Amino acid sequence: MAQSQGWVKRYIKAFCKGFFVAVPVAVTFLDRVACVARVEGASMQPSLNPGGSQSSDVVLLNHWKVRNFEVHRGDIVSLV
């Protein structure tokens, strides 16, 4: 019985350590580097979502390029 309680404590401790490291890293990455978004509707046709309103495309929004002002003609810019 004592061994099983020690294993559970170690497991919970390791989980908490991983959680408290992974969450800030993930939030920072999504805020500063890139995130994934879904494009729905006809507003971006025919470049994105060519099938109409029935389907949706998934795009990667690159925050890094926008922060460094590396936006060029022809780039798609999302205002979130």
List the helices and strands and how they pair.
Layout: H1 2-32, E1 34-39, E2 57-62, H2 63-67
Antiparallel strand pairs: 1-2
Overview of the structural elements:
The protein is an alpha+beta fold and 80 residues long. The chain has one domain. Helix content is 45%, strand content 15%. The chain is elongated, with a radius of gyration of 21 Å. The mean pLDDT is 81. It is found in: Membrane. This is Mitochondrial inner membrane protease subunit 2.
Quickly describe the structure:
By secondary structure, this protein is an alpha+beta fold. The chain contains two helices and two strands, in the order H-E-E-H. The chain has one domain (1-36, 56-79).
- Head-to-tail CA distance between termini: 53 Å
What is the element string, with H for helices and E for strands?
Answer: HEEH
- Outline the biggest β-sheet: 2 strands, antiparallel
Class by alpha and beta content: alpha+beta
Outline type:
elongated
The count of DSSP E runs of length 2 or more, i.e. the number of strands, is 2
Low-confidence stretches: none
Percentage of residues assigned to helices: 40-55%
Task: Describe this protein with a few key phrases.
single chain; 80 residues; alpha+beta; two-stranded antiparallel sheet; 2 strands; 15% strand; Peptidase_S26; transmembrane helix
